[in-house]
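STRUCTURE REQUEST FORM
Protein name: Probable membrane transporter protein
Source organism: Streptomonospora nanhaiensis
Requested output: structure tokens
Priority: standard
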Amino acid sequence: MQTLVLLALVGLLAQLVDGSLGMAYGVTSTTLLLLVGTNPAAASATVHFAEIGTTLASGVSHWRLGNVDWKVVRRIALPGAIGAFAGATFLSSLSTEAAAPIMAGILLALGAYVLVRFTAWGMPKGRLGKPVRRRFLTPLGLVGGFLDATGGGGWGPVGTPALLASGRIEPRKVIGSIDTSEFIVAIAASIGFLVGLGSAGVNLLWAVGLLVGGVIAAPIAAWIVRHVPSRVLGSAVGGLIVLTNARTLLDALGAAPALRTAAYVVLALVWAGAIAWSVRAHLIERRAETVPATPEPEPAAPAASAAEADTPAHPASPAPSAPLD
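Status: completed
Returned output:
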């Protein structure tokens, strides 16, 4: 019972992050599962089984609100599923000793991306443009799906910024399309883990615990979106992911205690600095939004020259001459 409560808390925290940022459910939940000692392959498998339920609910919600571009979903979901299946079978074939540093490295890279992305630029923004081409979506889906399975997350951090940066789809449809297509990716990854690990390697009860926590967190995440700046939250979560997986990576590599301490201190200082920078940037942005723009003064009329001033604008017509006698 205590384990289920802990997993529900993990799922709740991960959904708070994902519901607030539109990404990082898998990265956050897998990181927390590894932190409590879960096998890397089992952690990723458990997260993806839970995501079948969370992504289905999210996809239906986005579809009902008109936030889904079905052309994008069709073009990215199948490559994503292929990449996720390949990543799941690859991770399942590795031993725990080999898989731990690989997954920690991928998660650390994704966490660093989230940290830099939100600290430096805030919430990604896009602009409406031309349709997204298949030659762009196919490799994006393959890479995102593979990283999602091997790293326990990555579909959102890889796919969402790439689509936003393309400038060819409006932001709300980027989030909706990525969330909807992730349902197919989660199914493919789960099948891959079943093939590689067997049903005994996947703890469905843990997946249910994560799912329950995610469902409870959904309305809380909506509140966070309204009250906590996404820029600050992204910096906080990204730093947490980096710090946690740096610890796992240093342990797996057998780093000396002095090196570990120095690395933790540096990362903690960078994390604190990133949060402070994000808070400052958010306050500046909010101040700029609340202060009305000052209208520019109209240019003054040019001063008339001395010659023009002495000359009347409309010279008087000459007086009529007196009649001759």
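Reviewer notes: Residues 2-287 form one domain. The chain has a mean pLDDT of 78.
Form closed.
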